[in-house]
């Protein structure tokens, strides 16, 4: 998979993503009623978030069958649990992902988030909004360290600082 956010349409008859079984890819986490917001756009209608052993996040829409997005963990350059309701209207996992960099001229001509047809290669932010904001997400980026479990609810024991 190329770096950055990609469309994902490899969906099995049961609605789950088709994984690369030949390389040993397996499902390690599934979260129903998860929405994603691409860039500054409003969240998509709820779908299902999948995390695989191939270090991919895959989101599939429940409302629009065949619609989905995927991103490799290594394309995620930053993530944080966001609980600031002034910055975003609901708790979410905020991620920055690798994206094509446009020249100033290209940016003026083609805002990747302006029209309905979104240029995914230029989307640099992805928010994951879980149906239950009290859920916890564990992300392991395949590095020698394991990121902490990030509580997304308002009653988190993590302090800002």
UniProtKB/TrEMBL annotation:
Name the keywords, alphabetized. Answer: Cytoplasm, Nucleus
Does the entry feature the keyword Zinc-finger, yes or no? no
Where mainly located? cytoplasm
Q: Which Pfam families match?
A: Voldacs
Which cell locations does it reside in?
Cytoplasm; Nucleus
Q: Which GO terms describe its biological process?
A: mRNA cis splicing, via spliceosome; spliceosomal snRNP assembly
Q: Name one GO cellular component term.
A: pICln-Sm protein complex
In its keyword annotation, does this UniProt entry include Cytoplasm? yes
* Protein name stated in the entry: Uncharacterized protein
Q: Which organism is it from?
A: Panicum virgatum
